[in-house]
Amino acid sequence: MKKLTKEKLNKLEKLYKENEEAEEKASDLLKEAQKNGDNKLKVERKDKDKKVKVKESDLWDEVWHLGADCNAAKALKEKYPEVFEAFKKQNKKAQELRDYSIKEIGIDYRKIKLIDIFNIAQAVVDYNKEE
Q1: DSSP string, 31-53
Q2: For the chain, what are the domain ranges?
Q3: How many Å is the maximal CA-CA distance in the chain?
Q4: Alpha carbon distance 37, 127 (integer Å)
Q5: What are the pLDDT digits (tens) for 24-44?
Q6: Which of 14-18, 31-35, 58-62, 105-109 has the lowest mean pLDDT?
């Protein structure tokens, strides 16, 4: 655990806030796009060697399970580029937060362990003693 400073804590708080805002924006855009679940889009299916019409709700499910590189994502990206761009920005913010927390605090906030909690508590006590 690295030493806590007011500057580090302020920067960490800023990064958390930016990440939460990016998550919220991406989530809101996705929810709005998913309201059109009954609409159908043409999607290329390799097993049929042609494009078929598929409900958007099924395409979103496919993206959830297969990721942003599947054919369903390609079709949805054309119609909803802002959703995919928002998630790309959110992923970038999350990576920035992770990198900062590891570099400046010594903990990956996504993989916190019990010993990390004890170390954080000790760092807070030390920080308060110095103030």
Answers
A1: HHHHTTTT-EEEEEETTTTEEEE
A2: 6-130
A3: 69
A4: 51
A5: 999 999 999 999 889 998 888
A6: 105-109
